[in-house]
Design a protein that fits this description.
six-stranded mixed β-sheet, Nuclear Transport Factor 2, Chain: A, 110 residues, alpha+beta
Length: 110
């Protein structure tokens, strides 16, 4: 298991449990977060974003590519968010890890 898969596995579990503070703890204190809403910087914005998501939301992901760039890891991911009351949402995700934390997160519709 790679560091990226380890971090994304914890992200996936925290999302499924609707634990926004746990999701936010996976990010650096100055992380740039670009979800499908306006971006934020820092853990508070990440926690707020995931707290606003509906109960029962889950995510499945597949790492398409992973590359070390110096001390950082860049990942390109295909993900699908599933909901209890609407169709799934397929997205493309780019993350940059520093150590075992997400420093940059960008998602766009697939």
């Amino acid at each position: 298991m790679t560091i990226l898969d380890e971090v994304l596995g914890r992200w996936q579990t925290a999302i499924a449990g609707h634990r926004p503070e746990e999701v936010a703890a996976l990010f650096t204190s100055d992380a740039v977060f670009q979800g499908l809403h306006p971006y934020s910087v820092g853990r508070a914005g990440v926690a707020e974003y995931y707290d606003s998501q509906p109960l029962g939301m889950t995510v499945a992901y597949r790492i398409l590519s992973e590359r070390a760039l110096g001390e950082a890891t860049v990942g390109w991911i295909e993900a699908e968010f599933s909901f209890a009351d609407r169709d799934p949402l397929p997205v493309m995700l780019t993350v940059v890890l520093t150590g075992r934390q997400i420093a940059h997160y960008h998602v766009s519709r697939a």
